[in-house]
Structure formats: structure tokens, C-alpha cells
Amino acid sequence: MSRGHSVQLSGSARRRRRALQCLLLPALQCVLSVPLRAATIASARLWPAQEYTRLILESPSPVPHQMLSMRNPLRLVLDLEDVDLSGEIEQLPRLVNPDDPYIQAIRIARFKPGVLRIVLDLKTDVNPQLFALQPFGPHGNRVVLDLYSLTPPDPLMALLEGERARERDLAPSEPLAPTAPKLQRRPIIVVIDPGHGGEDPGAVGRRGTYEKNVTLAIARRLKALIDSEAGMRAMLTRDDDYYVALNARVQKARRVQADLFISVHADAFSTPAARGSSVFALSEHGATSAAARWLAQRENEADLIGGVNLDSREPMLAQTLLDLSQTAQISDSLRVGRSVLEGISSINALHKGSVEQAGFAVLKAPDIPSILIETAFISNPEEELKLKSEAQQQRFAESILGGVKRYFAMNPPLARARVS
Predict the structure, then answer these.
(1) CATH code of residue 62
(2) Mean pLDDT taken over the chain
């Protein structure tokens, strides 16, 4: 057979080829027409708070997404590509809290083939931040939408307004003769940081007690005690169940020119036998024990669990905190830590009788004495009961206050007067 000539098939061969085509082509067309498996939203969560509201969609695989902002009426549109309309998504509108300061309602519909649309009807203009988180710890891939106020409250102004209101309440009923402006000593400001919150429950006890709830309860009690003291005021880094980034906790303390920063925790260990209270200060040169190093590493991973938009971090903050010498801050932190540890020892056993040190990110304010208190081990059944008890929470708060007052009695803060 010469080149260029076509191959001539016999009649029987042609019939066999046509039969094979009839069998294969429909199967091939069927395979090509089936789309790739759509992603499933395994969990949809909403965390409303005055500071910001957070919407979280969690899935086993990454979900392509985009956001649109619309007006008349105000709303945000979140489009998810190749996502099934699962029960978790469908129940999202029922999660909207009537007291949510930002979201009025949520609507869900199939926008077009391959795109699921979530519409957030808003009560007010917001500053939205949309970002994705990779799997970490118990969480899978997360799409996170944070809604912030366009004019976030200034914590220092809020503190000053509270002080002015208190002064008005204590003012004499009879009008006094006008006097010239005078310098008055500002109150001692203590920032209390309830650990964890929102997506990050912290440690969990065997009875299901969440560390984030215990720390907030104790912090609220401690704040009330401090506010009742003459010449002292307290501020919480979070006053509800939401997550605050570690660096944001430090920024809040610096913004109100705090004289002391106290981070409240209730940790867990691998064995239920671990018990007792501990107090920690920052270390520049490594942890004072393997346990302190392990604990600091766990606490510093909180941002990965709680969920932080890394693109929104102030780029110079971390470097500034690392570059500034913190020798004086650490020295003061050890002093207040010893005083607080002494106070706690009156109501609970101590895990270790001295203040430990490690590289806790939340203690890195270079100009504020800062301590982290592990009130008790939530993994210990007996101490978990203490942490759940309102009476014991009050005792923890009172013992911490006692230590704080002893410290300031011996180490008064630098005079920072204000004009009244």
C-alpha cells in the first residue's frame, strides 16, 4: 500500500466501528456534562457585638467569593461560587439578633447557576472587611466578613465621659462659687483583658465550661470592683462574646494610657491533676520553664483560631513593640505580678509560688506593666467547679484587686494630671 492512500475498511469493520461509537459517545458526553462537586458550607456562624459583628462561613475546601456594597436600601452582597444551598446556610437568617447594631436581616437565594448570594440588609453604614482563613486547629477553611462602625468609639473618650458622669453624680447639690481651672490627679486606669472570645473558646473543661465565658465573668466582676474604688477606673478589652486580636488588646491599653494591663485566663493541661493559680510576665530572653513556654505558644496561637485579618494590621506596630526596650516594663510587671500572686494565694492553691515569664504577645505593651493571670485549671474537675461558681468568681476578682491595690500603694503611677 503506497503512502497517501486512505485505508479502506471492510463492511464488517465499518459496522463494528459505528457500534463502538454508539456505545462510547453517550458515556463521554455524560462525563463532560457533570460539573465538579460543589462545596458544602459545614457551619455558618454570626457573632454580634457593639464593637463589630462577624459572619463566618466554614467549609472543608476553599470557597471563591466576592462582595458588593449597595445603597437604597443599605446592604452588602456576598456571592459564593459553586456552593450548595445547605441547611447550615438556610438557617443563617434565623441567627440575626434583633439587638445586632449592624445587621437588620439576612436573605439567601441562588443568584445564577453556580453562584449563591447572601444579602445582608444593614441598619447603618459600615466598614466591611472580608478575608479568608486557612484551616487551623478545629476549624476548616473560613470566609470571614467583619462589619465595623464607620466611626468607632474612642475608648479614652468613653473612659473620660464615664469619669465626668461620676463626678457629676458626686457633686454637691448647692452651687459653688466659680473657681479658676485647676489640675487634678487623673485616676489610675486598669485595662482588664478577658482572654479568648468569639470563635476562640479557649480551653474547655470536662463539664463543657468555656474559658472565654469564665474569663469574661471574672473580668466584669473585677471591673466593677475597681470602678467602685476612689481614684481607680477600669476598661475591658472586650465586653461580650467576640474575638479581639492580640495586638488590638495591646493597642486598646495604650490608647487609654493604662497604668496596668491584666489578661485573665483559665487554662487546661493534658492531665486533670494539674491545678493551682499562676501569674506570668513578659520575657525578652526565653521562658522560665517548659510549661510557661508551652502556654505562651498556645496563647499566641489565639489569633489563628479566633480569626484575624492579617492585611489590616498596622505594619509598624509589631516591629515597634519588638524594638523598644522593655526592661523597665518587665521589672514593674514582676512587682505587680508578685503582689497579685500573693492575693490569689489566699483563695486558691498556687501552681507555682513565683511569677513566671514567657513571650506572651498580649503582654508586649512597652510602656505598661502587664501580667497574665491563669486563675485556675479548667481541666481540673474541682477547679472547673470553682471557675463556674459566681461566688468563687467574685473571690478571684477580690483577690486580684487586693494585689493591685498593694502594688499601687507601694508603686504609685507617674503623675499624669488633667485640667478639670
Answers:
(1) 2.60.40.3500
(2) 84
